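YM 10:42: Methyl-accepting chemotaxis protein sequence, as discussed on the call
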Amino acid sequence: MMTRVNLPLTSLRRVMAVSLALPALLALVFGSFLIVERWTILNDARKVQQLMTLAQAAGAVAHAQQLERGMTSLFLNGQEASPPERLVAQRASSDAAREALLVQADVIGLERLPSQISALVSELAGDFDRSTEIRGGIDARSLPLPEALGYFTEMNADVLQLVNELAEASSDAQISNRIVAFAAFMTAKERAGLERALGSGAYRKGVFDTPILLAMRTMVAQQDQAMLFFDALAAPEDLAAAAPVETLPATAELSKLRKIAFASPDTHDLAGVTGETFFATTTARIEAMKEAELAIGNG
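YM 10:58: structure's back
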């Protein structure tokens, strides 16, 4: 004979309540995980956007300083008593780009950035403060050319390091690789800017001495290396943005001007090329690289 067990009414109610509540509880827990996951993705997306905005601001600083460096080289290799108006105007553009970078860093908050990034921003701010002293030495022609150009080159090296550090700050490998590719393209552009400064100054002076020729060859080789790195890591749309640079008339013309410069120790002939010609040719190419850089940064 089966023994009948009478469960208390309260126990039955508890069982029924738990049975009914369990699916809702599981849905709530699962929903909470989804919310946390989506919030994490959203936060990372915001972080990536902030980092890319900072990288673009850094790129604007490098571009402005590249132009100022090239114009400074032309001035110091010439005979003008005072800096030309376009150099004065470019200095204002450099200052505006620098201020925009510092403002963007403040908007994000240095305390929210990795220590390496905040340290680089602080170092750049200190270098920016030296501008009045450096430019004064340039205007008075009391600052040696290598030191004048080195001031801009060292700052731009910090800018490039800043962008590389931004890549490491992202937890998304795809985003990180894209920022690294962006930094590689910026590096190629920076070396192109150095080539402009060195070549335009030497053409204006009328002679390419051995150290300048070696430095220019190094800049050309480093541009090629950086672009190989970019090609290996860049997304297809970024490769497409950079492709037009190679088919520019200025790129073909620059190749000719390089050959004239590199052959000059043997030919003793610069073929009538002036510093202004070299500056204009390299600038046309660099401006196209800047357009590509903006497209890559906004992609």
